């Protein structure tokens, strides 16, 4: 008999793991206090900008409390890097099966709590440049892996910073970004195709017909204060797992001065009861 778990999954681009720990530390804020307080069972981290040893050292206090860690270090110092923390045993961990991107620190998946959970960080890109071409090759490779996971019929969720706003509801200033990477028609169509293939944008399903909820705001100007953000941090789940999603929230800081990353955690609760009433 396969056990169906109750599991809470969070995803957060930390914008440098050592910076996220140091940021606001005097006020007892930052990544470590957040991890100490979170109800999440699994936490996906992106843009650690650190090698595996540095990630382990930075997270030593939470590892001492029993969290399990898997990480994928970047191939270029100070760039990318992803990691996954779990309160449950990590049964297996896998990098992206790709000659080009396997060691880039942009994709890591683990089996934990009866679920395959991936932490991913898609390139920012830049329209009509080699950077955009690289982004698109990564997207193609990612889609191929997602097709394999969906066909396997296993509960799976792909978490991370996708660097793509899917619809006009996912970006405040969409009119000013239609020709920029992150809101290009081709990128948005790629996400549409993923959803058509059976993956579910869990946050959007639980928060339909609203602007956002945004999870990234520029450090500059008054973007945060005016909630002029982007929704680019997604949890895309296979249909059986998505059917168990009962709540989803963006853990937005109460004030600009309390932020410890330019992103906010996106947290989804997946219940083992498929008939449980959904709540936002």
Automatic annotation (TrEMBL):
A GO molecular-function annotation: metal ion binding
SUPFAM superfamilies: DNase I-like (SSF56219)
Site description Interaction with DNA substrate, residues in chain: 263
Record's keyword terms, sorted: Hydrolase, Magnesium, Manganese, Metal-binding
Domain named Endonuclease/exonuclease/phosphatase: residues: 11-263
Cofactor(s) for this UniProt protein: Mg(2+); Mn(2+)
Residues the record marks as active site: 121, 161, 263
GO BP term (any one): DNA repair
Positions contributing to Mg(2+) binding: 13, 47, 161, 163, 262-263
Important for catalytic activity (site feature) positions: 233
Entry superkingdom: Bacteria
Site (Transition state stabilizer): 163
Details of cofactor binding: Probably binds two magnesium or manganese ions per subunit.
Family membership: Belongs to the DNA repair enzymes AP/ExoA family.
UniProt protein name: Exodeoxyribonuclease III
Organism, scientific name: Mycobacterium gallinarum
Organismal lineage: Bacteria, Bacillati, Actinomycetota, Actinomycetes, Mycobacteriales
């Amino acid at each position: 008999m396969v056990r169906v778990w109750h599991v809470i999954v969070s995803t957060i681009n930390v914008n440098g793991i050592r910076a996220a720990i140091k940021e606001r530390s005097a006020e007892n804020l930052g990544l470590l206090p957040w991890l100490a307080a979170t109800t999440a069972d699994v936490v996906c981290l992106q843009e650690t900008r650190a090698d595996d040893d540095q990630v382990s050292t930075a997270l030593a206090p939470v590892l001492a409390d029993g969290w399990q860690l898997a990480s994928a270090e970047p191939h270029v110092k100070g760039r990318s890097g992803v990691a996954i923390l779990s309160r449950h045993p990590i049964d297996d961990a896998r990098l992206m099966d790709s000659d080009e991107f396997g060691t880039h620190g942009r994709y890591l998946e683990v089996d934990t709590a009866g679920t395959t959970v991936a932490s991913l960080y898609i390139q920012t890109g830049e329209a009509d440049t080699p950077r955009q071409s690289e982004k698109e090759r990564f997207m193609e490779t990612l889609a191929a892996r997602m097709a394999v996971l969906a066909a396997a019929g296993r509960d799976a969720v792909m978490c991370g910073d996708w660097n793509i706003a899917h619809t006009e509801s996912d970006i405040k200033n969409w009119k000013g970004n239609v020709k920029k990477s992150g809101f290009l028609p081709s990128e948005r169509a790629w996400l549409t195709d993923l959803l058509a293939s059976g993956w579910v944008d869990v946050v959007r399903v639980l928060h339909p017909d609203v602007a956002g909820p945004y999870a990234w705001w520029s450090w500059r100007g008054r973007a945060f204060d005016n909630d002029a953000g982007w929704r680019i941090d997604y949890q895309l789940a296979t249909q059986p797992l998505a059917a168990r999603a009962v709540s989803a929230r963006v853990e937005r800081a109460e004030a600009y001065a309390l932020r410890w990353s330019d992103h906010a955690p996106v947290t989804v609760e997946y219940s083992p009861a498929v008939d449980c009433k959904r709540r936002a």
